[in-house]
Structures
1.
Amino acid sequence: MLTAVAFIVALGVLIAVHEYGHYRVAVACGVKVLRFSVGFGKTLYRWQPKRQQPGQQTEFVIGAFPLGGYVKMLDEREGSVAPEERHRAFNTQPLRSRAAIVAAGPIANLLLAVALYTVVNWIGTQEPVATLARPVAASLAEQAGLRGGEHITRAGFDGNLDPVDSFEDLRWRMTRAALDRRDLTLEIAGESGRPARELLLPLSRVEAKDADAQMFRKIGVIAPLTRPEIGDVVADGAGDRAGLKRGDLVRAIGAMAIVDGQQLRETIRASVEDGKPKTQAWAIERGGRSLHIDVAPEVRDEGTTKVGRIGAYVGAPPDMVTVRQGPVTGLWRGIVRTWEVSALTVRMMGKMVIGEASLKNLSGPLTIADYAGKSASMGLTQYLIFLALISVSLGVLNLMPLPVLDGGHLMYYLWEGLTGKSVSDAWMERFQRGGVALLLVMMSIALFNDVNRLFG
C-alpha cells in the first residue's frame, strides 16, 4: 500500500510541476490555455477556477491514467480559431515565445529538483561517517594503498579537493569518477598527530558499464567502517555451537587481524575449502577478556558459489553524522547537485547510445514504484531525495531531441530560427513516427529491466 501511494504521489507531483511550467509560461506569453490535465483517459475530477488571468478559461483535470499529462492551448493546427482570438493561439506566437513555453516544462522539473535538494540540505540527514572499511582483496582501493580505517576528509579531481560530508557523499564522488573514467584524489586524516596525506584512487581504470554493486567491488570500497562485533546469534547455528555470544568483538581470524565488520563478513564467506567448512581460530574480546575459540561455518549455496555462514548478525552499525547546511550553502549545494546529476544522466545516455554503458541502466515504472516505496519507508528526507532524482531524470529526458518530447520541438524551433522556415508537415509526421517508435523501444527495454531486477 505504501509503495502504491508513494508512487502515485511522486507521479502526481512531478507531472503537475512539469505541466505547470508549460502552463505558467504560456499564460505569461498571452497564449490561451484550454485545458491543464494531470493524467490521461477518463476524467476523475475537473474544476475551473473563478479567478484566472484575463482571457483565460482553463479547465483543470485529473485523469484516470497517471503516467503523463498535457496542457492544451488554443492552436489553429488543432481546430478552428475565432479571428478575434487568433493573437492568443500558440502557433501565431513569436519563435522565442513558443520555445520558452516548450522549454518551461523540463526547466520546471530541474527547478523542483533544486528546491527538493535544498530542503533536504536544510533539514539534514543522518549518514555514515566517511571512514572506510577494509577494501576488497586485490581491488583498486587495496592496490592504491588503502587498508581500512582511513577517515576521508576531502576528495576531488586534479588537485581541487572539496570537503567530504559523509560516506554517501564519498560514494557519489566515486560513482561520478568511475563512470567518467577519472582518477579521484582522497585526503586522509592524519592519526596520532600526524599530518593529513593524499592518495590517488585510479578510478580511470575501472571498466564499468553499470553503476551497481559489482562496480564498487571492483573499486573495493563497499561500506563504511563498522566494529567487527557479533550481534544476535541464532540458536543452534554455527556461531552458537562454537560459543560466540552477542557483543563479542572479533580481533583476528587465524593470522589475519580483523579491522571491521565488512572484512569479517567477507572472511566468513570465504571460509569454505573444496565445498566444505574450514575451521578457523578466532581471537575475540568479551567483557574486557581475550578469548580464543574455533569456529566452523555452515556451508550455503549462493547461486553457483558456496559460501560460509555462522548464523549470527555480523558487524555493528556504523558511526553516523548529521549532514546539514545553512540557508545559502544549502541552496548552492542543491543547485550543484542538480547540475551534477543532470550532467551524469546526459553522459550515461550518451554512453548507452554508443555502447559504452549498459542498457540495464534504463529504469521503468516498476523500478520507480519500488524505489518510491522503499524511500518513503525510510523517512521524509529519503523520499525527497528520490523525488529530486526522478525530477532531474524527467527534466533531462524531456530535453532529449526526440520528436515526441519537448526537446524534439525545440530542435524544430532551432531549425526554424536558423533557416527562417518551419519544418514541413510531411517531415513533421515522419519525425513523429520515428520518435514514437524509438520511445516505444526505450520503454520496452526499461520494462524488461524492471522485471529482471524485481523478479529475475
Note: The chain has a mean pLDDT of 87.
2.
Amino acid sequence: MALLGSTGSIGTQALDVVRQHPDAFCIEVLTAQNQADLLIRQALEFKPNIVVIGNETHYEKVRDALAHTDTKVFAGAGSIADAATCESVDTVVTALLGYAGLNPTMKAIQAGKHIALANKETLVAGGAIVCRAAREQQVAITPIDSEHSAIFQCLAGEYMNPVERIFLTGSGGPFRGKKREQLQDIKPEQALKHPTWHMGRKISIDSATLMNKGLEMIEARWLFGVKPQDIEVVIHPESIVHSMVSFQDGSVKAQLGLPDMKLPIQYALSFPQRLSLDVPRLDLTQTGNLHFEKPDTETFRCLPLAYQAIDKGGNMPCIMNAANEIAVQAFLEERIPFLAIADLISRTMERASFLPAPNIEELNESDAESRRLCQELIGTAFPS
C-alpha cells in the first residue's frame, strides 16, 4: 500500500494495523508534509520502496537519514501524487489533510488503484469528478471515516434494497448543549478537547463547529449515492453507534463499537475479510444508556452551510471547504474568534465565483480564489 499522510492521526493508526498483520500488508510508499523525524523513523521500521516529504526544505534531512537504505526519497506535492501511482502499489490510503488530498487521489484513481479514503475533503470538493473517474476506471473507494465505514458495513449485502434514510451520528463535540453567547470567548485549547475521539487539530475544530458532520454528509452523498435530504445528522454523545441505515421496510441497521479508528481503518484495508484486531471490545452492560438528539443548527451554523453548499452544487462545496480550512487555521492561530468561523465561510460562499459544472483545473482555481477571499475577509474584519 501507499500511505499518504503517514505521520498524522490516521496514518500512524494505519501503521498500527500493519504491525498487527505484517503478512497481510506491505508498505510500499510513505509520505508526510512536515514531520520529517517521524517519517524517518517510520521508513526505518517499514522499509518502503519510496518516501516523500512534502515540504522540500526537509528533503536533505530525510535523504541523508535514509541514505544507507534502499528507500528512494523524493520531495514536493507533485512527488506525493506521483508516488500514489507506483506500479507495485495495490491500495492507496489517502490520509492527507484537507484539499491537498484531491489531486493525489485523482491520480491514484486514474492509475487504477483501490482507494481507502480517509480524506473527506476529496469528495466534498470534487465528489462528482472523483466518483465519475472511479466508475470509468472501475476503482473501488472504501471509506475509512468511522461513520462512513459504519454505513458501508450496514449496506453489505443490501445493495439491491433501496435506502430510505442514512443516520449520520456525531458526538456533538466539546460544546454540545452550549448556546452562542457561551461560545464568544472560546480558546483553541478548549475547542481541541474532543470528548471521545483523539484526532488531529483541524478535524477537532471541525468537530467543535459541527462542520465535520457537514463534510461527512457531503461525503456520504457521493459514496452512497443518496440525496442530501435523505441524510440526517444525529447527535450521539457516547460515540458507540457509529451510524445507521434505514430501509423501505422500516428496518434500521446500525454498526456499534468503541471509539477506536483502527477498526474502520483495518476494515477498509481488508474488506471483505474481517481480520483479528487487538482492540478493546464493546460491553453493552457497561456502556449504560445511549442518547440521540437533533443538532443545534442555530448555534452551530456550519452544518446548515454544508447543506446549502451541496444543494447549490457545482463548485460551492469546494468554496465552502476552502473557506473553512482558512478560517479554522486562523482560529487556531488566535487571529479570529470561534464564532467567526461560520461567518467567514458564509461570506466567502456569497462572494466566490460560482461554477455549475467545474473540471479539476477549475476546482483548483476555485480553491485558490476562495482561500484568498477568506484571507481578505479576515484581514478586513480582524486586522492584526
Note: The longest helix spans residues 360-381.
3.
Amino acid sequence: MFDLLGKQLRMPTGNIGKIVAKMMNKRNAKFYSEIINYLDVKDNDKIFEIGYGPGLGIKMLAELNLKCTINGIDFSELMFKEAYERNIKFINQLKVKLSYGDFLTEDFSKQTYNKVFCLNVIYFWKDLGVAFRKISSILESNGKFCIFMTHESEFQNKKFAKDFCKYSVVNVSTALRNAGFSSVNYVFNNGYFITAVK
C-alpha cells in the first residue's frame, strides 16, 4: 500500500492517480502562491514548469493576465490530460503549452526560458547534477530557477517515501552551485523555497 502511494506521488495513474491529484492540489496551492511570488513574474517572461502535475500552478500563473508564455512538461499521462483540461482556455489563447514526457530525456536545444520552477519534484531525481545542468542549459543568462521542497525530516519515517531522494537544502544548494548557478538563496516556510540565478 505504501509502495503504491509513493509510486503514485511520483507518477499518478488511473483512478488512484486522480485521488492523488486532488490531494496534490489541496496541499500545493499555498506553495504555488509562494513560489510564484519568488518568480516575480513580469510581462514578456518565458516560464517553464517541470512536473506540473494537475496543472494548478500553470493556471495560477496564466490567471495573472500578464503578457508572458508558460510552458511545462510532466511524465504522467494522467497529469498531462488533467492539466490540459484545466488550462484549455489558456492553451487555446497560445499562452500555455503543455508537453507530455520526461524532462531529463527531452530535447530542449531550441528552447530557452528566463524563469524555470518545480515544486515537490527533486525527490525523484537521483542525480541532481544532471538535472540542474540541464535546467541551466535551457535558462537564459541571468535566468531564475525556483524550487520548493519539503524538509527531508518530513520523509524520514514515512513508509511511502522509502524510495524518495531525501536531500537536504545544503545538498541542493551545493549541487546548484556546482551546476554553474552564481547565486543561490533559500528561505524556510513549511518547506524550503530555493532561488538560484544563472
Note: Residues 2-8 have pLDDT under 50 and may be disordered.
